[in-house]
């Protein structure tokens, strides 16, 4: 057991949301000087945690138009010195320049890593209009792209997405070298597991979170995940990570509102 | 030098049904809402709207003024989806050309620099290529790659809202982001700028760096002084988004009677009527 080194707050065992935040942080390990863009509360915690610990060179936006140093709490304004102007136009340029690793929230994701955030149903007359493709087509062919799925289910993990917004391995290959040259899909973190990609480009079960079984993940996935060898357990937060999450990055506990599984796991 | 001051209704009088109109701002940020409200008071229809969309798209869709939306997203930022755009799409009422956000920028830039298209990797491998059947690819003449050829998005008119301008059309943003308002104006035959305040030219740079003057009078056909003209979207640093009013806008979309009432209270009168009704709303909110 870890997590008991510092003050009383961090002596409680880690929750699932905290395990997920650390898994998000881990997916940015090794990135160096890139913009770490993250949608959702747990990813927002994860990128701040990564920068506060093992990836100090990451660039983080205040969510408006500035790159800001420091470590500030989720759900409030950024606190720290502004280090860069990152207007949308600047961000678009840096996206195409490749200087970003994004974690998006897909409404649907298939076995090859194609994501959909646009529509459910027919494009001409959708059953459900979602956001639109936003920057997903460009993000996915220009710079590292991962996904956060707060509720791992067969509604999200589907055999085929209704509209390819973010480009998967199969479609990048089909579209030719211009699409695949900088195509770089990174880990998918869910409330149950961490997924990466097998050499053939299909999603693979990399680790299950503490307290989750492989069968649970398989049952919640609408296609066959690649499972090769023994599936590891997702790393548990250490004491300093728990202190940062609980006292600095998310003192209000917003992470628990995003997760269905708030239970103690470790 | 020409005095380009005019009213919002003057701007709308220069627009025609069936036009392609670019709308500045982003999501629920610095949208030219006073100009949108003026369109709602007119009989313009069958518009093609090019926008980093928010309530501008939603309001025009709700009023049945839109033939086609050229977009990458429609969002109210703090509320992810605009209910009117969503409803119009789900009823199959509006045509769309859906592009990646960067492709949209590229199409505006192409139009602005008078190129028929610009190449990009964005869109390749995605269904943007399949839902836009006219979207073609182009081979690199120097190498082997094949790119998406984003067509120029030429606009008949652009509508943007800025913090300050002078009477000649030199326009200034004082908030954190210009968004793509400059490209909208470059891409348009005629651009109309509404602003919080029209000031003498020398005042524009009295306290602000000249780099905030990102839209030159070269590109501007008309200037409208419209205080709180971006309401209920944000217009930092002059004011933030009116979150309570935005919620009321979204809630009113939930049934036709509520929307009729919202339209009657806020969208049938003049801009002054609108601002007075919003002041009453704010007072009620403060007391609640």
Overall description:
The complex is a heterodimer of chains A (266) and B (288). Chain A is α/β, with parallel strands linked by helices and 266 residues long. Helix content of chain A is 27%, strand content 19%. Chain A has helices at residues 16-27, 41-52, 88-97, 136-142, 169-175, 177-180, 214-219, 239-249, 255-258, and strands at 35-38, 66-68, 82-85, 100-104, 108-109, 115-116, 119-121, 126-129, 145-149, 185-190, 193-197, 203-208, 232-233. In chain A, strand 7 (119-121) and strand 8 (126-129) form a beta hairpin. By secondary structure, chain B is α/β, with parallel strands linked by helices. Chain B has 11 helices and 11 strands. Chain B has helices at 8-13, 33-41, 55-62, 83-90, 101-112, 128-131, 181-187, 201-204, 243-252, 256-266, 271-287; strands at residues 20-23, 47-51, 66-71, 95-98, 117-120, 136-139, 146-151, 155-165, 171-172, 188-198, 222-225. In chain B, strands 1, 2, 3, 4, 8, 9, 10 and 11 form an 8-stranded mixed β-sheet that branches. A 3-stranded antiparallel β-sheet of chain B has the order 5-7-6. The longest helix of chain B has 17 residues, at 271-287. Chain B is globular. The termini of chain B are far apart. The relative contact order of chain B is 0.17. The mean pLDDT of chain B is 97. Chains A and B meet through helix 3, strand 8, helix 4, helix 5 and helix 6 of A and helix 4, helix 5 and helix 6 of B.
